Structure prediction request, 556 residues.
Amino acid sequence: MIIDQLSIFLNNAVGRITEVTSTLSEAGVNLKAFTLSESSDFGILRIITDNNEKAVEVLKANYFAVNVTKVVYMELGDTPGALYNSIQKVSDAGVSIEYMYAFSTGDAASVVIRTEDIERCNALIEEV
Amino acid sequence: MDRAKLRELQSERLVKIVKYTYDNVQFYRERMDEAGVKPSDIKSIDDISKLPFMQKKDLRDYYPYGTFAAPLKDIVRFHASSGTTGKPIVAGYTQNDLDNWAEGVARCLTAYGATKDDILQVSYGYGLFTGGLGAHDGGQKLGATVLPMSSGNTSKQIMLMKDLGCTGLCCTPSYALFLAESIAEDPDTDIEKDIKLKFGAFGAEPWTENMRKELESKLRIKAYDIYGLTEVSGPGVGGECEYQDGTHLWEDMFYPEIIDPVTLQPVEPGQQGELVFTTLLKEGMPVIRYRTRDLTHLIYDKCRCGRTMVRMGRILGRSDDMMIIRGVNVFPSTIESCILEIPEFNGQYFVTVDRVKNVDTFDIDVELRPEFYTDNMDKMLNLKARLTMRLVSVLGIKPVIHIVEPNTIARSQGKAKHVLDKRQFKNE
Ligand SMILES: [Zn+2]
Prediction:
């Protein structure tokens, strides 16, 4: 399914991540997943929360450069190779993946995929 | 006047003014002697580069009368610049100087389309500042009707502007903007019906093309630049014409040069550098090769208006701001204009220069407009590469660009501080 992810532009990412997480926890927003992508002098922190609206509001109020990005979210079932099959299908269809990351939600594991062609990617994955 | 004729006239006048200054100003005579230049070495305007420079410091050091060439009995007026600290710069004018100054202002007014039928509201300050009396005398020289308003008292400004039907406004661009806003807020004044202004002569502070647009639409006028400085004369050293495509300089009276502020050599025609003036006719306080510290370039092509007199481009900054990084001259204004060329950047920047293991480091922090802080790492790295390439091609050296979070570069009022030079030495 397609969900919202928040992307936060950060300098000196390591130090600033703590500020992001404390800002969110003070506002009562829970983080479900996060991943950091870094270049030599800046990073993009990507997070999934249980209350995006509130998260954007408090982050903006604290002068973070935050924006909302659509991503494809899939839960990994028990079937081994399910992830591989899905990715194969997406790339065979010529949809290029910008990035992806996995996280665990209790017992299960989930994967987030970002591509330019989000609708098509989602359709392909849901067919599997 | 064609340019060959103009050069002849400039040559004739330069020979005279150099001899006159040498004979009458002790400090400049000493400068010329030190440089081994005699007045007889100056035979034409081409010899001007043999002459030593004058600077603001000289005018301060020889305050109050040490730079005057005429005896006080011939000086009919003083003006003084608003020095930020210490002694001001005092200029003395003979009657001929005042006449020539008024002539320069009258030429500007003519270029704006003004005639003796116009009513000029002079809202520059009257007094030591050259703006008020300079515009005043120029307006009278033209035969226009002058309202010596001076600055301040906005409601009276608007009342007389309406009641007398003033057609031209002379003041600083920031005061003009303030007046425009006050008119817009005044319920008793309708800009269309009540205000007859056609043009504005704005100067004495730097202004931008955006301010011009704003003034033109708010006041329903054409807004023109008038350029000048007290050390050289006052407003009216030059002005724009109806094409608003560079400021014509009245170079039969004020000879402009552009020099490289480091080598002090003249640059190729059209190149950017520091503006230098020689007053070809002044008697009271002539200046020879006076370094203005203003960075600009000169345009020698004939203007669409038909005037042959050289045009000055926009003033890009001050030569005092120049840095030497890895042996290359770098002006913050050049960096700024490269950044503004790429619309994704918001124009805020901060330069840090340091020296590590005998090599200069050159880092520039920049901010993006909020909508360009995206999730896409490649796009942002691309922007960084584009700006780097642009700066390399313009400056000749490669800075390290850092895209920083929005609102992290300190904003300062007025002259923004854009540079931190951590090196142990200064470029002096
Ligand atoms: Zn012109």
In short: The radius of gyration of chain B is 24 Å. The longest strand of chain B covers residues 345-356.
